[in-house]
Write a structure and sequence with these properties.
This protein is α+β, with helices and mostly antiparallel strands and 178 residues long. It has helices at residues 3-6, 46-62, 127-142, and strands at 26-30, 33-41, 70-74, 87-93, 105-110, 113-123, 145-146, 152-155, 167-177. It is built from three helices and nine strands; from the N terminus they run αββαββββαβββ. Strands 1, 2, 3, 4, 5, 6, 7, 8 and 9 form a nine-stranded antiparallel β-sheet that branches. Residues 1-21 have low confidence and may be disordered.
């Protein structure tokens, strides 16, 4: 993806709530991707933002991995899983065979296949609402169904991040099948 191709997909402003002006969801075939990740266990939301800022991003810079695709992978539904048990991985795309000496870093494959992709830009606290709308509004009406692969946020390195503190620009990627 190139910045020029995607600029029209991100609304210039979504208001204080980060609400969508429309649900421009696209189906994309995602390639299997090797990732290095650090896991946060606990509530999503501000704790995840602090985890990125204090743990993952410093490791990313020290490891010379900045400028690559990064991912936020929520493994649990916070509506079903107690907040203290929610698992979230902050991840970066790496080459096959990558290993890290850092004890908190693991490697895995992010599965490929069909994903519904929705542009998100807004305050970090609104991303949960965006996921809820994708899952509760778009998915039931789409003719697709979610499968067992992980949902993830894709922080595409070709997209400029907003300069406002606490704002995000990413793709919400939902694994789908017919």
């Amino acid at each position: 993806m190139h910045r020029g191709q995607d600029e029209g997909l991100f609304p210039p402003s979504q208001g204080a709530t980060g609400a969508f002006t429309d649900m421009d969801v696209q189906i994309q075939t995602w390639p299997e991707t090797r990732i290095a990740y650090m896991r946060h266990i606990g509530a999503y939301g501000p704790a995840v933002a602090a985890f990125w800022r204090t743990q993952f991003l410093p490791w990313l810079a020290q490891s010379g991995l900045t400028g690559r695709s990064c991912f936020g992978i929520g493994h649990d539904d916070p509506g079903l899983t107690p907040a203290s048990r929610c698992r979230y991985d902050a991840a970066v795309a790496v080459e096959p065979g990558f290993s890290s000496a850092h004890p908190a870093v693991g490697t895995a494959e992010l599965p490929g296949g069909a994903y519904a992709r929705l542009a998100f830009e807004g305050p970090a606290e609104a991303i949960g609402l965006a996921w809820a709308r994708l899952l509760r509004e778009w998915l039931p009406a789409s003719g697709w169904r979610c499968d067992g692969r992980p949902c993830f946020e894709w922080y595409d390195p070709t997209l400029e991040q907003p300069t406002a503190a606490g704002h995000l620009r990413c793709w919400l990627c939902l694994p789908v099948c017919r």
